[in-house]
Write a structure and sequence with these properties.
It is built from 1 helix and 12 strands. By secondary structure, it is mainly beta. It has a domain of about 140 residues: Sandwich (Immunoglobulin-like), CATH 2.60.40.3500. Keywords: Signal.
Length: about 230
């Protein structure tokens, strides 16, 4: 009789021992793996003994949500927004030769300030022309050579050829100015210096001499001059 009672007592203890691991399993790092919430879309949750929680990719706007909770319960630091190109450092002149069948038309000049540099963009209709971007002691009118009354600490001259800033009927395609006030980090103003015998000139008036770079972009065709602050 005593043996039967002992057996009956042992059976519930065995049942309790067999259910004790259903709340979670310890992984090698000492954490308890289990259900931590639904995984984010596009990420497969892979289970298994000793497996770590699934890696969760931040959504595209995660950098705008500081203090987001990670699956491990830690607070993640805000991500830095993507950065653009580094400010230019070279001060060497840039010269590119081209001979398009028809002189392209200069249709616009625009500018904007970016992180660490200013950008001047010259728009074209047609192919890109040849061009020179170089330092000059002062800005002068193409053709006459008369000085242009504009003050600055340094001057970059952009000369494009062959190119025109007017149609065959003489209608200007580059309007406004001739001095376009900019007031950026280094670029004070942008000046139209001429449209004479298939040569178009644009001067960039700076606060100080600094590194610059020239790049070409297409669709539409344009010339981009970045000047460091």
């Amino acid at each position: 009789m005593n043996r039967s009672r002992a057996a009956l007592v042992l059976i519930p203890l065995a049942l309790l021992t067999g259910c004790g691991g259903s709340t979670g399993q310890a992984d090698p790092a000492g954490r308890t793996t289990g259900i931590t919430g639904s995984p984010s879309s596009g990420v497969a949750a892979t289970g298994g003994t000793g497996s770590a929680p699934p890696a969760v990719q931040d959504p595209p706007d995660a950098q705008d949500s500081p203090g987001a909770r990670s699956p491990q319960g830690r607070t993640s630091a805000p991500q830095a927004p993507p950065t653009g190109p580094e400010p230019p450092t070279s001060t060497a002149a840039v010269r590119v030769e081209r001979h398009p069948d028809e002189p392209p038309l200069v249709t616009g000049v625009r500018f904007a300030e970016h992180g660490g540099y200013d950008r001047v963009v010259i728009d074209f209709r047609g192919d890109l022309p040849g061009y020179t971007v170089d330092w000059v002691p002062e800005l002068v009118q193409d053709g006459s050579g008369e000085p242009i009354d504009v003050e600055g600490g340094a001057y970059l001259q952009v000369t494009m050829l062959p190119a025109n800033a007017h149609t065959e009927s003489g209608t200007p395609t580059l309007t406004g100015g001739p001095i376009l006030q900019a007031g950026l980090g280094n670029v004070r103003s942008v000046v139209k210096t001429g449209d004479f015998e298939a040569v178009v000139g644009v001067g960039i008036v700076l606060e100080r001499r600094a590194g610059f770079r020239v790049t070409e972009q297409k669709q539409p065709n344009r010339l981009v001059i970045d000047v460091a602050h």
